[in-house]
Amino acid sequence: MWIRSAFWVGSPKPGLEAPFERAVVDDLLPALKACPGVKNVLALWPRKREDDPPQIACQLLLMFDEEADIAVMLASPERAAMRQRVPAIAALFEGVVSHVNYAVE
Fold first, then answer.
1. From edge to edge, which strands make up the β-sheet containing 40-44?
2. pLDDT by residue (tens digit) across 25-54?
3. Count of alpha carbons within 13 angstroms of residue 73, beta-carbon side
4. Fewest beta carbons within 10 Å, which of 5, 7, 26, 29?
């Protein structure tokens, strides 16, 4: 199993917390689930922080059977269509988005 994690590090713009969360849940998650090779997608929302972690506003976990499935997803027209939605969601957010691919044992 493989997981591609997207870290939204920063915070929603003041007063836009609920619209940001709704956009991720209602727009990004279904679009990502529709991408080829993706087995499941989860959004993690931190509610309690300990020991001074990074200021992650949201973490998305995309699950795949094989590492090659990540490349299939990244090259797909479904992902290209989803990426066109990201600027509108990013406009609700102050920070950066980064990705890490994990091998799961």
1. 40-44, 56-64, 2-12, 93-103
2. 999 999 999 999 999 999 999 999 999 999
3. 26
4. 26
In the chain, which ranges are E strands?
Answer: 2-12, 40-44, 56-64, 93-103
Q: What is the C-alpha to C-alpha distance for residues 87 and 105, in angstroms, rounded to an integer?
A: 34
Rounded to an integer, what distance in angstroms lies between the CA atom of residue 94 and that of residue 14? 9
CA torsion sign for 13, 99, 41, 44 is negative
CB contact at 8 A, 99 and 5: yes
CATH 3.10.310.10 fits 2-103, yes or no: no
State both tokens at 103: 């091998």
